[in-house]
Specification:
alpha/beta; Histidine-containing Protein, Chain: A; 5-stranded antiparallel β-sheet; globular
Length: about 575
């Protein structure tokens, strides 16, 4: 296999000049070493090797000239924690409170397990979960035979029930794959024929498509009735009716709050410094606050999942960060598009991601993006000028009416991609009790409920006789959303609590009562961004320009803090300067 790998690398003219070290373990994990000129070459070599038949996964230790990725040394921090001699006991530790970690926490709360979720940030959903387009993908683009493909279909289906139990908003307008080219339309019609005859199951690239329910073929005229604002004269479209839309952070919060209601403990601003093992078994974790003894540790660390795996000596994969930038537009365009829209064919996406386009949020804001850019640093969430230009080009393929001047905000998140471009879910073969939930990039949001089920089955199989939590309640009541109530309901609510009559955020019509509810919720919102995610205060056109100071005052008052102690997003992100008072 080593010769095949070297030959594959040398086939690429750009990569042929490099002397790359290749080591293959007994279980076909390939470790790559050497030095190249560009970071993109590091990534390209990793993907090239991943295509060689027989390769199970890749540890990519190739360096790029001029790029130094600092290695974290937690030795001194660990010493401080050990000196505290502060211990806790539980059954399961989940590292990471993104969508995967929170979905798993809720799933495990069905059992008599003491579960603790650890999150290094000041709030849940702080990383990739808050920075994606909220699409519950139908599963048509997942590669056949992958874990992604399997869990995408299952997860999409589970969302309907979950949205009712957990009371988060789920819309299923579907998504449109528009066709302008006659050749592409003929391909679409061929797919329609193959689905009728079931022949498509014999064609490997089509096997996943054949499993996706709710596909509809519509004419250009029908399409324009549904989406009159797209440009040109389309021949027709493939309407994927099971595509759903959610606010991803809202779903994550719903999972987490229900988990807390059923006995799960969340510890924020708690960084895992080391995973403790003994004779090939997990014994717990050391954090910046305490030592937690547990039988299971579930690694849901996103872009840092390989770092956590390395703590137990089982790094058999490498996460290479892929940044995606998104732009959100003003609500004055609400209704301009009713669903995500993309164009079939005529795309230059060569990024191993599904690529972006024109989308819409459940609240009605237009959303363009995301981009897909390979970067060396896992914490680099910057948005560059060329990102915005690219985002506008994505949207302009659908309509040229929406202008850059209508953007109200933009942001970026980091996809946690491994070189096999698939999910990594399973118990470590080297360390009993250590479970990886890694490589979770799109369609990670859509797959989250199915990922949780899979982890549940792993623990049930290992524990065998696991007790059921007889008091488990799957229902999470929705918090007050004043803007969505009728006038009669609003009047009644204000009579009960006048604070619901005090509008703090005028753009989104968010009240003081809602902000107070968020601050004192199951997972308290203690920062301005945390309040924003729970209530939408600050998500409107002015982006907190008017309501920000009032939100800060309310947080300070409710938590008994000095206003200068309130942060934007935890750590040292203080909003006010103590010296300016």
């Amino acid at each position: 296999m080593k010769n095949k790998i070297i030959k594959a690398i040398k086939k690429n003219n750009e990569l042929a000049c490099y002397d790359i070290g290749v080591h293959i373990s007994s279980d076909n994990i390939v470790t790559l070493t050497g030095e190249v000129d560009k970071w993109q070459h590091v990534v390209d070599i990793g993907h090239t090797v991943a295509k060689v038949k027989g390769v199970k996964n890749i540890v990519n230790d190739i360096k790029a000239k001029g790029i130094t990725i600092p290695e974290k040394d937690n030795t001194e921090k660990i010493k401080k924690t050990l000196a505290l001699d502060n211990h806790m006991e539980c059954d399961v530790v989940i590292i990471g409170a993104g969508i995967s970690g929170c979905a798993i926490a809720r799933e495990l709360s069905k059992y008599n397990l003491k579960t603790i979720v650890l999150e290094k940030n000041s709030d849940i959903a702080e990383e990739a979960t808050k920075a994606n387009n909220g699409n519950i993908h139908p599963g048509i683009l997942a590669k056949p035979g992958t874990l992604k493909a399997k869990l995408n279909l299952r997860g999409n289906k589970l969302y309907t029930k979950l949205s009712k139990e957990l009371n988060f908003e789920l819309k299923r307008p579907g998504s449109m794959n528009i066709v302008y080219d006659k050749k592409e339309w003929n391909k679409i019609l061929a797919l329609k024929f193959l689905r009728k005859t079931k022949i498509g199951y014999l064609i490997k690239p089509l096997r996943q498509v054949m499993k996706v329910p709710g596909l509809k073929w519509i004419s250009g005229e029908e399409l324009l009735k549904l989406e009159p604002n797209i440009k040109g004269k389309p021949i027709g479209a493939l309407w994927m009716t099971t595509m759903g839309l959610v606010e991803p952070y809202e779903v994550c919060i719903a999972f987490a709050e229900n988990a807390v209601q059923n006995g799960v403990t969340f510890m924020l601003e708690t960084e895992v410094l080391d995973v403790v093992t003994e004779e090939g078994e997990v014994k717990g974790v050391i954090t910046n606050k305490n030592i937690i003894h547990s039988k299971y540790v579930i690694n849901c660390c996103g872009v840092y999942a390989d770092n956590i795996a390395n703590m137990v000596g089982d790094r058999f994969f490498t996460i290479h960060p892929r940044r995606g930038a998104i732009a959100i537009f003003d609500k004055s365009r609400k209704g301009f598009l009713k669903r995500p829209v993309g164009i079939r064919g005529n795309t230059n996406n060569k990024t191993n991601s599904k690529g972006g386009g024109a989308c819409v949020t459940p609240e009605g804001n237009l959303l363009w993006g995301p981009t897909a850019k390979e970067i060396p640093y896992k914490d680099d969430k910057s948005v560059e000028v060329n990102d915005i230009d690219y985002i506008m080009k994505l949207g302009n393929r659908i309509t040229e009416e929406v202008k850059k001047s209508e953007v109200i905000t933009f942001f970026a998140g980091i996809r946690a991609a491994d070189y096999m471009e698939d999910f990594i879910i399973g118990m470590s073969k080297k360390v009993k009790g250590f479970i990886n939930v890694a490589g979770i990039q799109s369609p990670g949001l859509a797959s989250a409920p199915a990922i949780a089920e899979m982890v549940e089955s792993i623990i049930k199989k290992d524990m065998k006789n696991i007790g059921i939590n007889k008091s488990f309640n799957p229902i999470r009541k929705q918090k007050v959303q004043f803007r969505n109530l009728s006038h009669e309901e609003q009047d009644k609510l204000i009579k009960q609590n006048p604070k619901y009559g005090n509008i703090i955020c005028r753009c989104e019509v968010i009240t003081e009562g809602e902000i107070i509810d968020a601050i004192h919720s199951e997972i308290p919102a203690t920062t301005i961004d945390a309040v924003k995610r729970r209530t939408r205060a600050g998500m409107g056109r002015c982006q907190g320009g008017f309501c920000g100071p009032r939100v800060l005052e309310i947080i300070a008052r409710e938590l008994g803090k000095d206003p200068t102690q309130v942060t934007l997003k935890g750590s040292d992100s203080y909003v006010l300067n103590k010296n300016s008072r």
